[in-house]
Amino acid sequence: MKKQFFNFLKGGFLMGLIITLLGFQQLHAQQTVTGTVTDDLGPVAGANIVIQGTTTGTQTDFDGNFTIEASPADILEISYIGYASQDITVGGQTTINVKLAEDASKLDEVIVIGYGTAKKKDVTGAVSRVSAESFENQPVTRVDEALQGRAAGVTVAKANGAPGAGIKVRIRGVNSITGNNDPLVVIDGVLGGDLSTLNPNDIASMDVLKDASATAIYGVRGSNGVILVSTKKGSGKGKINVDFFTSVSQVPKLLPTLADNVGDFARIENIRKLRIGQNPTFTDSEIAGFDRNGGTNYQDEILRTGFSKNLQISASGSEGKIRYFLSGNYRDEQGIVINTGYQQLSLRSNIDAQISDKFKVGLNIYGSRGEKNNNFESLGNGQGSLMYKANTWDPTTPIYDADGNYNRRSTRGIGSLNLNPVLTLRETKASDVDERLSAALNASYQITDNFSYSLVAGTQINNYNVQRYSVEGSDDTPDANFNTNKFTSYQISNIFTWQKLFNDTHDIKLTGVQEYSNSKNIRNNYNADNLLLPNGYYFAETANGFTIGNNFDERELSSFMLRAEYILANNLSLTATARYDGTSVFRPGKKWGLFPSIAAGYSLINPSESSGFINNLKLRAGWGQVGNQGVNTYGTFANLDNNSYSYTGDAPSPGTFITSFSNENLTWETTTQTNIGIDLGFNEGRGSFSIDGYKKTTSDLLLNVPVSGTNGGGNVNQNIGEVENFGFDIAFGYDIIQNENLNWNANLALSQVKNEVTQLFGGLDQIDGQFQAPGGQARVVNIIQLGEPLGQLNGAIFLGTWKNSEAAAAEAYGKKPGDAKYQRDADGEIVFGAIGNGTPTLTWGFNNTISYKNWDINVFLNGVHGFDIYNLMQAGITGGAGDSRSFMAADQVNQWTSSNETDIPATVQLFNSSRYIEKGDFVRLSNFTVGYTFENFGGLANTTLKVYAGGQNLFLITDYSGYDPELSSRRTDQGNADVAPGINVGAYPNPRSYTLGVKVGF
Fold first, then answer.
1. Dihedrals φ, ψ of 153, to 5°?
2. How far is CA 798 from CA 821, 914, 923, in A?
3. What's the distance, Cα to Cα, between the start and end of the chain in Å?
4. Which domain, by its residues, includes 226?
5. Would you say residue 35 lies in a domain?
6. Does residue 3 carry a pLDDT above 60?
7. Rounded distance, CA 573 to CA 595, Å?
8. Which stretch of 771-775, 791-795, 839-843 has the lowest confidence by average pLDDT?
9. 424 in a domain, yes or no?
């Protein structure tokens, strides 16, 4: 069905559009020129069109349309305040469509600042803009690919390389230890959007609010920064755009293991068995056979070449007072791991109507359905991911036995003790379905010339269903389970705006907001254990055991906001904001919080008055506070769990026990931030530079504090602790080449941030994290330390191996030469502590767009620096865990021997030690795409055909030995990911992709 649908879209529908286009050719009067003037956000009303050297001219209407009488020799001058003017010779053209570009020397670009807009030159807070132009020449399928490296102060990282995998966006560091650090996403005025499901082709721009003076307008929801997404609008004559591209993806490299030389693996395995007093596993003849014939490389067996398809279709334009933008997107991505993939279908409808001169209304509707096949993030991660298991599995055991059945386990009981990873991936049927529907009604009425009212009414529905049949169940029998999470929310925002200019000098604008939002979560699940008929999910009713779970929570937020903006003589800008939030999460007396901010900007060199090389110089400063209500809906109450206990040794009696205690005084985390910035424009607007320095302190941290066993155990939420972030953001852009045929625009975004834990609870200087190493050692590999950044990695300090000359010293600790050697304390115990940190301190992105006549090239590089990777995948390969004792690392051939005393241990060592800490710094060529555009394709006026090809993740410069240093892996029950970054227990590899595509516009 899916293939038929795709073929219909690709073939029949596209052909139908082209045929339709052929029927719409028209003849126009020679002396009448019509056209449309637009910018990145849609039509430009009031743009001036003048015949050069005359006073004859006109202006664009509401839809950006114009009509003018001109001769072929005339030159039309198209201009609008804040945009670069364009001169166009009429020639034989009867239709001229113009897209205006920002005139950086005037800095009058309109920025979305929340509940309104402001000219860029008047913005006082730290705001970064990412427009569609910066990524439109890339084959982008995910919003993170569009945002990564393009906004200073914004860090975007892939969780892993799986199709449809989650993304992590952080703005100016990490604030909370146990709470959520995701920024607030606002899509067309509706709060709480999800970037991962949004179609990048629908985006006109993204404005990122970074400092508290900008985010305070969102109060309790703005503590982690805000991303304001504006989707596209229609304008002018009807246009249809079709974009189709296909990609081929592969893993850039395989990890070197002894599966490539199984004879060496067998010899080393025999040596390992002899060292622990056991008999050798392999005979000499078996080893000789492995030398001749090799074995099975399970890493290679579960990896493949993946193919993906992406089709995007949009129609936009205006008819009278109606503007429309309609789009559809279909993605079908094969993962580079067998039997994994992702499919998504999304539809959008944006309709705007100018009902009268004073009344406008718009309705935006977006729906999507995404389905992950065998979601790698949650599939079999209890003892390391499937990549981890494949790299530690016994290469001497083939996939199938002599009868063609799977070898479920190693036939010799060596290597990984887990189930055959090929069996797990091929026979597991897991489907994660994410269905979303959102709608936003926007209406505005101009009550007077100075006073207006706007309404934003939005709703979201999200159904996330997981249906899973697993052959890796309990007691080695299949299990089936089902989970559903139904999320619904709605929002009503009433926005009042008053603005007046006094004496052409004093510009005052007041914005008042009253807002209410409500959200509900309903969760249901069941698990069926030990299916008697192992024939799939729909035989769950044959299971021996069942468990069921239900949960419900609801939260409300009521808010009032007032913002005052003042501009003096076009030079001094002042902004003051106060938001008053009340939440249902906290108890009476603690529900309401006030979040203020103030900011100022002053132009030392005003772009409207300067004609020198430096045409703009502006200073900015701001201070503000925002909050975080990041606890569970019932986090202030005591929580119970069910259990049963046999008091007499007979049948157990049911009962309950406390898992967490109540705290009626619990209240907001508060983040206080100070920001100082400088904006610079030069060389007639060709260059721009901005730098912001900031410090933000998050106090009254919402921490889940353990309760001692003498007081009943469990935990309690408390406002204890403090985290600081300080750093700077730099944005630099320059038109390196700018002439009629050749243009080269380059943009650099760079961010540096230093994080520090400045206070913990109970006078402690360290608390344990929740990330445990796989393999049954049950040792925590992350810690939170006072005076250090979040992301501290915990382990022992590896000192090499005990040598022959140290035999007596080794014996005192029960060791012998060839064993791993670690730093010990005065009592002879191995010392565990911080051995690295997984939080990056420096990120950057460098985007280049080059055009030569009809050719265009996009080159995008990005880098991340100043962090470590805890390579627990390598630890498993080296044989450092209880369920993967065999040596699989390629360098084990040079392990310690009495005649070759290397620092590679000949016996199993600790899993978590500094031996597996690696520098994660990297530089990546994220995109290189070349395209050529055929204008008036097929002899059809205003029809374009663009053919493009390129690659993504083409090269990676790093010293990291794993697949990719950007990726991490974790289990969902191991706490906040931001206090355990940089830990790799077998993340899904990040693919290298090669893309070929075509765009048609008419």
1. 90, -5
2. 6, 5, 28
3. 30
4. 111-241
5. yes
6. no
7. 21
8. 771-775
9. no
